[in-house]
Please model this.
Amino acid sequence: MFDDLRDLYQEVILDHGRKPRNFRRLEDADRTARGDNPMCGDRMELFLKLRPDGAIEDVAFQGRGCAISMASASLMTETVKGKSPAEAHILGDRFRNLAMTGACPDCGASLEEEMERLQPLSGVHEFPSRVKCATLAWHTLNAALDGSGKEATSE
Amino acid sequence: MNAPVQPGFDVERIRADFPVLAQQHRGRPLVFLDSGASAQKPRQVIQAMVRSMEERYANVHRGAYRLSEAATADYEAARAAVARFINAADPREVIFTTNSTAAINLVAHSWGRGVMQPGQAVLVSEMEHHANLVPWHMLRDDNRGIELRICRVTDAGELDLEDFEAKLADGKVGLVAVTHMSNVLGTVTPAERIVAMAHARGAKVLLDGSQAAVHRRVDMQALGADFYAFTGHKLYGPTGIGVLWARLEHQERMPPFLGGGDMIASVTLEGSTWAEPPAKFEAGTPPIVEAVGLHAAIDYVSAIGMPALEAHEHTLVDHAMRRLSDVAGLTLLGRAQDRGGVFSFALDNAHPHDLATLLDRAGIAVRAGRHCAEPLHARFGLEGGTCRASFGLYTTLGEIDYLAEALTKAREFFS
Model:
């Protein structure tokens, strides 16, 4: 009945959804931000520990949500660890493009391996009502990096 | 799959009236289980609205010409049809609004701010739709000295009548505003009892009938409430029209909510005087075509007969209770004795949004989330939400079987 949904719910998504990586509080975080999609009830808190040069030394999150949003946050934390804020922004822009269109024309330019890691989420573009689940973590990351203190949302 | 479920109630014939149900979805028939959010429309409603616009449309209550007179007659005929449908004592008790939310807000503004006094309280329940909660938050926070009290819901998903009585006891409650049927739990509340208890303590009663008016025969003279709100689009009618039934003596005391044309008796640059009820509460050009559509929807369900609809729904509810209880890992929210065709559920290994995406792939439309009832989900420890299947008069036993089968397969998918 659901075999064709394996493109969306690939094993890696289900795995990260069930056992999200970096799912914890960072007590000594330099930056935190909240993300909230009130219509669907997805909610997360993101923690960043920054190096003196501003790069992301450690990143973790807590929250609740669907498999897509949990997996996306989990994969994001694995992907942005060690990256500069500029690189994290580039990854976020490309990821949102990937989630909305399923394609990433700029992906060959740089950070190829990182985008490869996020590729399993590209199937979400076929489900317009679910794109916001995949992008919430990245909106929250932007809010944390900008230090605006504003609650992020992708709705 | 679609055998008639009651003698004399031919669900196949009914389904043929709903053009959208002929749709295929990835080669499967559409299984529409979101009627509680908004129901599909029968051809009779669609055609009545088309005819209104093609043949009998102009603004109402204004033009001294044939078309305007025809439109006015249709609009007022719709009011009379609503009055008959809910057994109102007088058609003037029927105020047309845009939906239930607007109807409740009208009460919150005109009664809450215009008639209620500082020191009084509004009593709602934990199972209210946000439409019957947020307007009362706004009233409470408007510095008028009006308190908001919340009646608890039992673990079975019923109104806790002991708590209800306790919250009425000091006589300060001026208005009880509770649902007649929960849009999440399916619970039908004991409206007559609520009204009797509230009136005994001097409180007026507003019932949110958005769900109940679709599933049950509602009788204003038997219920004895003071205000009753429902909406057209859940009753197989169009969006953009709702009803506030309000006793005339209450309408007399209530100041207008919105000002504008059609609600005035006379206007000078210095001021105005109000039209008689219900026109006083219908400022501006009303939903004329929508009123015609609502009239057609009422004619449609009345021709089938509310008793037949109720019997059909009983069969569906009993069947769904059995079939859904058999699905491994499925939690059903609410086990009220008296309930209608609304079932909210959570699967132990799937988030409601993931589950809804799977069900959609199977051609089943359900709602996922908290269904505009966040506090109720928190009450049952389901902050992440639920999926909700809600039935209409076109729902079949076969569709419920198919839902149960899909839920079982969804659980396997996520395991």
Remarks:
- The CA atoms of residues 8 and 127 of chain A lie 9 Å apart.
- Residues 3-146 of chain A form a domain with the Sufe protein. Chain: A fold (CATH 3.90.1010.10).
